[in-house]
Specification:
By secondary structure, the protein is of the alpha+beta class. The protein has 2 domains: about 250 residues, FAD/NAD(P)-binding domain, CATH 3.50.50; about 150 residues, no CATH class. Helices cover about 35% and strands about 25% of the residues. Strands 1, 2, 6, 7, 8, 9 and 21 form a 7-stranded mixed sheet that branches. Strands 16-15-12-13-14-11-17 form a 7-stranded antiparallel sheet. The chain starts with 6 loop residues before the first strand and ends with a helix. About 45% of the residues are buried. The chain binds flavin-adenine dinucleotide (FAD). Flavin-adenine dinucleotide binds next to helix 1, helix 2 and helix 13.
Length: about 425
């Protein structure tokens, strides 16, 4: 192995979003310091490349730290303080200063104006080159040994040479199946169990058979065992349900769902804008004004005709039933089918656009003012390796930029 130098001021483990951002910020804030990135893969920034469908959803146009922190099922409290130091407006400015303009979409997501993640990759690689930060690919860190005089000795699997470093920043992303888990535990870090977040639900149910591709603009959805609803659009897929409302629920209840082996009952409210009495009033109004119409032919907006027909049929309402003669009991069944449709998830499908890991280095073992280990001096953590994660929309990268900035600042201040 030829690392350029065998003794470093800072070794950054992981050539992903948080590793590069830490390296660039640290190198910009210091001069003459020896910093290097070690990446286990043959390529760096692989997740950035595929992120946001190849467009990289860099951050979210949410500039109030408190509101921003509400998008994180895990880490909201710690990130609230962190966002006061580095938030999306700082991200936008930083990229602007480095030649990348970000644009905002109608839903608040921010992308490079080229609509290509390659723009971000180029920015980081050019930055590393300009600042003289070496990148060592195919270097998977496997052992961390604290040295008597301070700092660490790093081992990289079968590579024989060791690297000494004063400080060490773990930017490895998800620690699932990581060979580092044991070393980190020995350094006094506890690890929250690692489970997936941001996934679609597999559902086998006649109510959605053949409806793949049908979407609905706004539902409320919750696990049956919980009273916490999530709202948003919903999409019926070949395997079950997806869309923002489902992904949000998968993030907020990631741990409970994992505990249940991703088999759990959940409830959909197809018309969350109407409470039960408003819906009863709507039914009464239709009976008065359109009593001769077939129930199956009069979808309640915004339900699509196909979805409505299926809900009506599965509620046991006859094809020829008209509103004016709909028995009370059937009317009640239809209301239940609309307001509290119960489904059973039988597994999960990872969302193709974005998924993250819930769990990681326990937050209470990290001083978030510096992103430093409370147990081991000189050890820092940034990005998804930490037990924090957000919902979709650019929030996960923002947590990576924020924690990287805080770590780089602390490391530069030395
Ligand atoms: C398909 C997909 C799309 C996504 N799209 C978005 C999006 O548009 N917006 C958003 O905000 N979030 C998105 N995310 C989430 C986002 O990519 C992550 O939250 C983010 O990449 C975390 O950055 P990180 O640097 O902490 O980890 P990573 O990006 O995972 O980088 C960690 C790096 O460390 C390396 N590594 C791991 N272990 C070792 C080791 N032992 N030694 C050396 N190197 C090691 C890995 O190979 C990797 O290169 C997406 C995720 C996925 C999977």
């Amino acid at each position: 192995m030829n690392c350029g130098t065998r003794e470093l001021d800072l070794a950054i483990i992981g050539g992903g979003a948080s590793g590069f951002f830490t390296a660039l910020q640290y190198a910009e804030m210091t001069s003459g310091k020896r910093v290097a990135i070690f990446e286990k893969g043959a390529e760096v920034l692989q997740k950035v490349r595929i992120s946001g469908g190849g467009r990289c959803n860099v951050t979210h146009a949410c500039f109030d730290p408190r509101e921003l922190s509400n998008h994180y099922p895990r880490g909201a409290r710690e990130l609230l303080a962190a966002f006061h130091r580095w938030q999306p407006s700082d991200t936008v400015d930083w990229f602007q200063r480095h030649g990348v303009r970000l644009k905002v979409e109608a839903d608040g997501r921010m992308f490079p104006d080229t609509d290509s993640s390659e723009t971000i990759i180029r920015c980081f690689l050019d930055g590393a080159r300009a600042l003289g930060v070496p990148i060592h690919r195919k270097h998977a860190l496997t052992s961390i040994v604290p040295r008597d005089g301070g700092g660490f000795l790093l081992g990289f699997g079968h590579l024989t040479e060791r690297v000494g470093t004063r400080s060490l920043c773990i930017a490895t992303g998800s620690l699932k199946d990581s060979p580092l888990l044991q070393s980190l535990r020995e350094l006094g870090q506890s690890i929250e169990p690692l489970v997936p977040s941001l996934f679609a639900f597999n559902v086998n149910d006649p109510r959605i058979d053949g409806l793949a591709g049908v979407s609905h603009p706004r539902v409320a959805v919750r696990r049956e065992a919980s009273s916490r609803w999530q709202h948003g659009p919903l999409l019926i897929t070949h395997r079950g349900f997806s869309g923002p409302a489902i992904l949000r629920l998968s993030a907020w209840d990631a741990r409970e769902m994992a505990d249940a082996g991703h088999h759990f009952p959940f409830v959909i409210d197809w018309l969350p804008e109407l409470d039960a009495s408003a819906l009863a009033e709507r039914f009464a109004e239709i009976r008065r004004n359109q009593g001769a119409k077939l129930v199956r032919n009069t979808p309640l907006p915004p339900l699509s005709r196909r979805l409505w027909e299926r809900i009506v049929a599965c509620a046991g309402i006859d094809d020829q039933a008209v509103w004016g003669q709909l028995p009370k009991r059937e009317s009640r069944c239809l209301m239940d089918a609309l307001k509290q449709a119960r489904f059973e998830a039988t597994g999960k499908t990872t969302n193709k656009d974005e998924f993250v890991t819930c769990g990681g280095i326990e937050r209470k073992t990290i001083d978030f003012r510096r992103m430093a280990s409370r147990a081991t001096p000189g050890l820092y953590f940034v990005g998804e390796a930490v037990d924090m994660d957000g919902i979709t929309g650019g929030f996960n990268f923002q947590a990576a930029w924020t924690t990287a900035h805080i770590a780089a600042t602390a490391l530069a201040e030395g």
